[in-house]
Amino acid sequence: MEKVPGHLRLGEAFTAADGTEVAIGHGVGGQYLVLSMSAQDGECWVCAPATDVAVECVRTGRSSPWAVVHHSATGTVDIYRSRLDGSVAESVVLCAELSLGRRVLVAA
Predict the structure, then answer these.
(1) Residue 93 sits in which domain range?
(2) CB 27 within 8 A of CB 7
(3) Is 3 within a domain?
């Protein structure tokens, strides 16, 4: 993963044990585990506030990145979707309302 949403600074990118491309982004709200995926209209980022322990668990393969998304440090995730006109839409979603895996985009 080469980029994260504009408000975050890319700290590191790696491939998790399950093959998911993961980035660590840093911003005003702290540290985020970022998963990037393609949506119908363009790119989409799922950004979960994450502790150092959660990030290390993903990095070492002890946890799936999706487990961190579904149990973020704040109980919410930010979902950013690029639109055809180049703008980016943001949604904040409760972890409890998220679908599993890539179906998470339905919640945004």
Answers:
(1) 9-107
(2) yes
(3) no
